[in-house]
Design goal:
four-stranded antiparallel β-sheet, alpha/beta, single chain, 11 helices, Rossmann fold, 307 residues, Alpha-Beta Plaits
Length: 307
């Protein structure tokens, strides 16, 4: 955390659609200069929360402030300081690549020459220079995602809301976006990131909020969550009933999980405890690896698909 200044604050934040509650009375704070990851299954309420922060959706109940301003009454001032990279492709197909940026800049009263200068610099950074004058329909999906990210930065925002910004990007494209996020953090920009990529959240986020069924079920730094819920190491071994019985007997404090043809073992003990046990499984395919944020996510939200 880079600051003790609370930049975004939600209290009892709720969003309902008729009888369905998408966001269920959540409380959270985001501090100036930090990158916070909102993680959760599909339909958990992440995107709805982000849309309320940038004043796209009205609140049903509760309060939500951005830089001390109420999203319900000061939307114009809030939008002026926020950059948004939405999950959906909402680029204007009637304009060229650079025209999309120039026209968007008008919403922030950025002078034409300055808008063109910023747009040109952003296209260069996101490696879209050669596509400057082509139509949106000529871009690949990955190029569109990078252009949406560039557009979110045209007003040099103090707060950046990124809703699954790297979905559909190849590894090179993902790392371009990662580099920009890291650079913005160093400049003091406050970032909220929703993503389904756990490695992305672990690499970029100072803090994680895990959301399920509209509620925040856990929060902490990536490493805090990993240590708290799954320990340091994970043992993966091919399924065998005898193996499971040995594991439970040798490691009574461990959590032994059977998933398909694989057994996964979590234990909150220092590294090295698995080496002694695996000697009892000669010939078995097994792996001892570092625990990660995906292990935490699956443990807390389950392994079944949620739509």
């Amino acid at each position: 955390m880079n600051s003790s200044e609370v930049l975004i604050k939600a209290t009892g934040l709720t969003k309902k659609y008729d009888d369905f509650t998408a966001v269920d009375s959540i409380d959270f704070e985001v501090y100036k200069g930090e990158c916070v990851g909102f993680l959760g299954p599909n339909g958990a309420g992440k995107t709805t929360t982000v849309r309320m922060i940038y004043c796209f959706l009205p609140l049903t109940e509760g309060t939500l402030t951005v830089a001390g301003m109420d999203v319900s009454t000061q939307a114009r001032q809030i939008k002026a300081m926020v950059g948004v990279s939405p999950q959906d492709d909402n680029l204007d197909p009637d304009f060229t690549v650079i025209k999309n940026l120039q026209v968007y800049a008008r919403y922030f009263d950025i002078p034409k020459d300055e808008a063109t200068k910023r747009a040109t610099e952003l296209l260069k950074f996101f490696q879209l220079e050669e596509k400057r004058d082509v139509s949106i329909n000529a871009l690949s999906g990955g190029m569109k995602r990078r252009l949406i990210m560039a557009r979110a930065l045209i007003n040099e925002p103090r707060i950046l809301l990124l809703d699954e910004p790297t979905t559909g990007l190849d590894p090179q494209g993902r790392h371009i976006v990662w580099d920009e996020i890291r650079s913005l953090r160093k400049q003091g920009v406050t970032i909220i990131l929703t993503t389904h990529y756990m490695d992305e959240a672990a690499a970029l986020c100072d803090r994680i909020l895990i959301i399920e069924n509209g509620k925040i079920i856990e929060t902490g730094t990536p490493q805090e969550l990993i240590r708290k819920h799954v320990g340091e190491d994970v043992l993966e071994v091919e399924y065998d009933e005898a193996v499971v019985e040995i594991l439970k007997a040798e490691l009574p404090d461990a959590e032994v999980e059977v998933f398909g043809e694989q057994v996964r073992v979590f234990i909150k003990q220092p590294r090295g405890v698995f080496e002694r046990v695996v000697k009892k499984f000669p010939g078995k395919n097994l792996t001892i690896r570092n625990a990660n944020l995906e292990d935490v996510f699956l443990k807390l939200t389950g392994r079944k698909l949620k739509e």
